[in-house]
Design goal:
The complex is a heterodimer. Chain A is mainly β. Chain A has three domains: 1-36, no CATH class; 47-137, Immunoglobulin-like; 146-264 and 311-354, no CATH class. Helix content of chain A is 4%, strand content 47%. Chain A has one helix at 264-277; strands at residues 4-6, 11-15, 18-22, 29-35, 47-54, 61-66, 83-88, 93-95, 97-100, 103-105, 118-124, 130-133, 136-137, 146-153, 161-170, 178-188, 191-199, 202-210, 215-219, 225-228, 236-246, 253-262, 295-297, 306-312, 314-321, 338-345, 353-354. In chain A, the strands form seven sheets. In chain A, strands 7, 8, 11, 12, 13 and 23 form a six-stranded antiparallel beta sheet that branches. In chain A, strands 16, 19, 20, 22, 25 and 27 form a six-stranded antiparallel beta sheet that branches. In chain A, strands 9-10-6-5-24 form a five-stranded mixed beta sheet, with no helix packed on it. Chain A is globular, with a radius of gyration of 23 Å. The two termini of chain A are 40 Å apart. Chain B folds into two domains: 2-110, Immunoglobulins (Immunoglobulin-like), CATH 2.60.40.10; 135-810, Maltoporin, Chain A (Beta Barrel). Chain B contains five helices and 52 strands. Chain B is mainly beta. Chain B has a 22-stranded antiparallel barrel. In chain B, strands 1, 2, 3, 6 and 9 form a five-stranded mixed beta sheet that branches. Chain B has a five-stranded mixed beta sheet with strand order 10-17-18-13-14. The chains are: A mainly beta, B mainly beta. At the A-B interface, β1, β2, β3, β4 and β21 of A face β45, β46, β50, β51 and β52 of B.
Chain lengths: 361, 811
């Protein structure tokens, strides 16, 4: 980014999807953010545990990987051949199946997430090290709250505006309730392959239809949406900013929401992740620090283990969000004269695409 | 020079002809005592630190003590006695020894003298001769000559140009002195403590330069009169109101404007000074490009007032009042950290200080000050949104009564005193402000404390070569009820899950006491008339600290008294210095070395929100710190070009040793403090081109502050998280900056009533984008970022040059 000059403020912070302003008055003050090469000494190869048991039907997934060098952009370093066992505090135990690519799964008929029970996992990696997670209580979760959007204009040339989404959730009278929201946008797509080729004669754009019904997924990755009831126990927690959807069409926008319960420890973990990934380097930011997870190495207690094994209750809510509520029309975003090809293209399961219709579609 | 012309000069020779017996014999013959006093004109208050030169059969130099007195032992003969002080008319009177043995000088300020433009810490000869080490005195005149950011003359910023002083970065509140944190500086405005020295979240200091007389800054060799903070003492004194005639002074700047009025209410008996300053900076935000910036509001004002009553020559009563207030409105809740969703948050913080002091002189040698201080610092955060409307109030109330008695006779100067402080702290009181608000009220328990101290400080001239100042302070602190002290399971870290209950203490019941002896020592050994060696040791206790885990402190951060869990901080400092002056004090050089040990420094558990924390002992970890450094200073005191060059080497490291594995990643390793900048160079120059006009230059260089870099990254829940382990092991890029200023003073004529001048300055002349921080972000969009790089960015705060202009006037 280049330097930006303001006839006003000293510092502004860019924090995730929120624009947060801080500090200072001045005449011509400029604050700027530029790219920087820090030359980091790297030390990777730490075990990373990522997985959650929920009160929804299984199978539940645990992903095991090693941490990556800071500059890594290519390699994938997952752990196969580990023994992963999930247990609850009532004596229920299940060994997970290695599905490859570091993914371990319970069976659909095996261990179940039940509110009020505590869960933990034990891991034995092929190098003989053993790991165990702290017992995690599966807490109940409140009903999905009142949802609403507010239209905001944007200064972007490509996008006229966006809809900010909020939720108001009624907190139960119990103290120490912690929440996390996740969401993904699904859109049925007709074309599974689009190719744009620039030739001396101009741009040629071709597309292939999908061989089967297919949905595009746009998940809000990197959104860590959290709330707690510390100051509002038993009241309504209002205006939780869930995210923003683009005003790039007037059709209704389908979103599948998940509302999770968290333990205090899990909340601390995700809060820590949020402050690390959305750090703006501002003068009132918390200095960078280790995010402590809940998995420990029992064979080598000094080893740092990353990640979190969580237990959550989840409620789902799917919704078609109308986007024809404003007087203006979105900018036209289709720039090509598409040529439809006759052959179809497979809809491959991926984080971006699925053949299964989402819940509530 | 003009001093002959002055009709204000009053020179009184007292007790002419009285004869004093020779006290001392030498091969040259009998010596006779000549004593005298220097007073400010017209207030007739003692003038300390004035250079007195006796020129005659021999040349001797001394400086006046705190009570304005001086003393010579002279050979028989004719002498010219000269009283010299920077920025004042030099006075000279002939005497005949032994007939004339007592004299008094009244020194009048001279706005026209060439020397006045010196940017000077201490006076020339004092550098070598004073029994002081690590002490700097800045007159407000010298501070005004330093190029200012946005035209606002700033006390705290000018202190940052002295060796041994740093801060975490531009725009941050407070200063770090020889490795201390910002709450370890005792900032006093006429004996009243200042808890937040910044306006506008850290851009400007709260002191109105018009109303100030001078600033004394102790970073080592702190006398026993002072206590309560472990790093430094910054004593800001309000100007004496003019007891003879009314005067109006002011200035118009781009951010703030000032007006001061002072004059006699009853001529020579009662005088009043009122100075105000207010910002009109809201309009600046209208130029902002972004909507949410346009909603930002930032305003402040402050009032400084001093009433001086002099019923008789032996009694003086002063009442000093200071009030400052800031209102700062920003979008969102990021700074409030209340974890309540808000469209905007209003920060509001206010300081109100009142000091009443009675000076009584029992005799020429014995005098006493009785001082009563009331001080209140009260920050508030409010959120206007109807669904979440709240007001979060906190505050520190300080009441102090103290008695200081001074005795000065011959080679001795003795100060003794007693002090009692009562603290009342409201750490946080959250209340919904509308019926529709979903916020539940939450009131943290109040803290009460009593701090008592007694001291003895003795300055003695052991021989011509050796002078010693030694002192002892005993301080004692009691945390008082009503208060509930939480109890925790033994042998596990304190956190909400290991809390087992608590013990209630009734009102006024003692919860916990701390106390200790604080020895102080400064010794000066003259190696030659222009060279001296100085040594000091001091121990300081601190019972009140700021709880803050952000890079720079917020005005709403919590002040916390020591309690059953939080031990007082202790600072021990050893320093050694060698001082030498050259070419008749034109050049002054010094080298100071120090080593400091800090006991019970605070650090915080990761990820704890300190706002409205009901059990702060669950978040605070205490450890030790060490700090050492060397400070070299070369200063030119006289001539058209004045100023200084200083180099500082400093290292500050903390060690937090927790017995619990939860905090294991800190164990056993010293890590650099956030503000640790090993190398610093300051160049401060002032070049006088005419009687009216002078240029000033600052160039500062420092190593970048330490920062924590990730050593790897990991992928959880579709996001890359940088993994930070070793604390502060990397550093951001080095900092350097040049500022220039042009001061056009009032026309050098005393005839005109309305006098005015201009100050132009450019901050960061070569527009360097100095790094405030380096931070890491993963790209945050709607596609899976498995292959995304974690990017590093540099944040600059003042990323370009900042010109400013200020118009000043007096009437």
């Amino acid at each position: 980014m280049s330097g930006r000059r303001y006839f006003a403020i000293v510092i502004h912070h860019l924090l995730g999807k929120r624009w947060i302003w801080a500090v200072g008055v001045a005449l011509i003050l400029s604050q700027c953010v530029t790219s920087y090469d820090p030359n980091i000494t790297e030390n990777a190869q730490k075990l990373v545990v990522d997985g959650t048991i929920t009160n929804q039907p299984g199978p539940y997934k645990i992903r095991l990987q090693y941490s990556y060098p800071y500059t890594n952009q290519t390699s994938v370093n997952t752990i196969g051949g580990a023994i992963v066992v999930m247990s609850d505090d009532q004596g229920m135990t299940e060994k997970l199946t290695d599905r490859g690519q570091g993914l371990y799964e319970t069976s659909a008929t095996g261990i179940k997430g039940i509110v009020g029970r505590k869960y933990h996992i034990t891991i034995k990696t092929p190098d003989g090290k053993t790991y165990v997670s702290n017992p995690e209580l599966l807490k109940p979760v409140a009903e999905f709250g009142k949802f609403y959007t507010e239209y905001q204009q944007t200064n972007s040339a490509k996008l006229r505006g966006q809809f900010a989404m909020y939720v108001d959730v009624k907190d139960p009278s119990t103290p120490n309730d912690f929440y996390r929201w996740k969401w993904a946008h699904y859109e049925e797509v007709n074309y599974c392959l689009q190719t744009v080729t620039t030739t001396p004669g101009g741009v040629i754009a071709t597309r292939n239809k999908c061989c089967e019904p297919c949905w595009k997924i746009e998940a809000c990755n990197g959104c860590i949406i959290l709330a707690n009831d510390r100051l509002t126990n038993g009241q309504t927690i209002t205006r939780v900013p869930i995210g923003k959807i683009p005003f790039d069409g007037v059709s209704s926008y389908f979103i599948l929401f998940e509302q999770h319960s968290l333990t205090q420890e899990a909340y601390q973990f995700w809060k820590g992740v949020d402050s690390q990934i959305n750090n703006s380097g501002g003068i009132f930011d918390l200095p960078a620090a280790t995010v402590v997870g809940n998995v420990n190495c029992t064979s080598h207690p000094e080893e740092q283990v990353l990640g979190y094994f969580g237990a959550s209750s989840v409620v789902y809510k799917s919704m078609y969000i109308p986007r024809n509520t404003t007087a203006s029309l979105p900018y036209n975003s289709d720039y090509f004269n598409w040529i439809d090809l006759t052959s179809c293209y497979r809809c491959q399961e991926s984080p971006y695409r699925t053949q299964k219709a989402p819940l509530g579609w | 020079m003009a001093f002959r012309a002055t009709s204000y000069l009053v020179l009184v020779l007292l007790s002419l002809g009285s004869y004093v017996f020779a006290q001392n014999s030498s091969v040259l013959g009998a010596r006779y005592i000549v004593t005298g006093r220097v007073l400010h004109y017209p207030e007739k208050t003692p003038f300390a630190g004035v250079t007195i030169v006796a020129r005659g059969p021999e040349r001797l130099v001394t400086t006046t003590k705190a009570d304005g007195t001086f003393r010579f032992e002279l050979l028989r003969g004719k002498y010219a006695m000269v009283a010299r002080m920077l920025g004042y008319f030099t006075e000279e009177t002939p005497i005949i020894v032994p007939e004339d043995n007592e004299l008094e000088f009244l020194l009048r300020e001279n706005a026209l003298l060439l020397q006045e433009v010196q940017v000077s810490e201490t006076k020339a000869e004092q550098n070598v001769s004073k029994v002081e080490i690590g002490v700097a005195k800045l007159t407000i005149k010298s501070i005004k000559k330093i190029p200012a950011v946005l035209g606002e003359v700033d006390v705290m910023r000018s202190l940052q140009l002295l060796p041994g002083v740093s801060s975490v970065g531009e725009g941050a509140t407070g200063i770090n002195v020889r490795g201390g944190s910002i709450d370890q500086n005792l900032i006093l405005i006429d004996d009243a403590p200042v808890y937040n020295s910044s306006h506008l979240m850290g851009l400007f200091s709260v002191f109105n330069p018009d109303a100030l007389k001078d600033v004394t800054f102790y970073r080592g060799g702190i006398p026993a009169q002072y206590g309560g903070r472990t790093s430094s003492v910054i004593e800001v004194r309000v100007k004496e109101p003019d007891a003879e005639k009314w005067k109006v002074q002011g200035g118009v700047g781009l951010v703030a404007s000032r007006l001061m009025v002072d004059g006699p209410l009853i001529k020579n008996k009662m005088a009043l000074l009122v100075a105000t300053r207010a910002s009109f900076s809201d309009y600046l935000f209208r130029f902002a490009k972004t909507a949410s910036l346009k909603g930002t509001k930032a305003n402040f004002y402050d009032i400084t007032s001093k009433l001086a009553i002099k019923p008789s020559t032996k009694n003086q009563v002063y009442i000093i009042f200071y009030q400052g207030k800031d209102v700062f409105k920003i979008a969102g809740d990021s700074l409030a950290r209340t974890e309540v969703n808000a469209t905007s948050s209003v920060f509001d913080w206010q300081t109100r200080n009142l000091t009443a002091r009675w000076n009584h002189a029992f005799s020429e040698k014995l005098f006493a000050n009785l001082t009563a201080v009331y001080s209140r610092y009260a920050p508030t955060i409010t959120n206007p949104d109807s669904a979440n409307a709240f007001e979060l109030k906190s505050g520190v109330t300080y009441k102090n009564l103290k008695l200081d008695v001074g005795y000065v006779a011959g080679k001795h100067k003795i100060d003794v005193g007693l002090s009692g402080i009562r603290y009342d702290i409201q750490p946080g009181d959250l209340q919904p402000t509308l019926a529709s608000s979903n916020i539940n009220p939450l009131t943290l328990q109040k803290e009460q404390g009593l701090e008592a101290a007694a001291y003895w400080n003795h300055e003695i001239e052991v021989s011509k070569q050796l002078s010693v100042m030694y002192g002892l302070r005993y301080s004692w602190f009691a945390a008082l009820g009503p208060y509930r002290v939480n109890a925790y399971e033994p042998n596990v870290p304190r956190d909400p899950t290991t809390m087992t209950g608590g013990v209630d203490y009734g009102s006024g019941k003692v919860i916990k006491t701390y106390g200790g002896l604080e020895p102080r020592l400064v010794a000066r050994l003259n190696l030659s008339p222009t060279t001296s060696l100085k040594f000091s040791f001091n121990r300081m206790y601190q019972y009140l600290q700021l709880i803050s885990n952000t890079t720079a402190a917020l005005p709403t951060d919590r002040w916390k008294l020591s309690d059953a869990f939080l031990k007082p901080q202790i600072g021990d400092q050893l320093s050694l210095g060698i001082f030498k002056n050259w070419q008749k004090d034109t050049y002054e050089t010094s080298l100071e070395l120090y080593y400091k040990r800090l006991t019970n420094v605070a650090d915080y558990r990761n990820g704890t929100n300190l706002t409205l924390l009901e059990a702060p002992e669950t978040a605070i970890l205490q450890g030790t710190g060490r700090s050492y450094g060397a400070e070299v200073l070369v200063r030119k005191n006289t001539g058209f070009l004045t100023g200084w060059v200083s180099y500082t080497f400093a290292q500050t490291e903390y060690l937090i040793n927790s017995p619990y594995s939860e905090d294991k990643y800190r164990n056993g390793m010293y890590y650099p403090a956030n503000f640790n900048k090993p190398h610093t160079v300051n160049v401060v120059l002032n070049y006088r081109i005419s009687r009216r006009t002078s240029w000033s230059f600052n160039w500062v260089y420092s190593t970048g502050r330490p920062i924590t870099y990730p050593i790897d990254k990991y992928f959880v829940d579709n996001v890359y998280v940088p993994n930070y382990t070793l604390r502060n092991q990397a550093k951001i890029p080095d900092y350097h900056r040049l500022d220039i200023g042009l001061n056009v003073d009032a026309l050098p004529t005393t005839k005109r009533k309305w006098q005015s001048g201009w100050a132009f300055s450019v901050y960061n002349l070569y527009a360097r984008q100095n790094a405030y921080s380096i931070f890491f972000r993963t790209k945050n969009d709607n596609v899976l970022q498995f292959y995304n790089k974690v990017n590093a960015y540099k944040l600059s705060i003042f990323g370009t040059l900042i010109p400013s202009i200020t118009y000043n006037f007096t009437y």
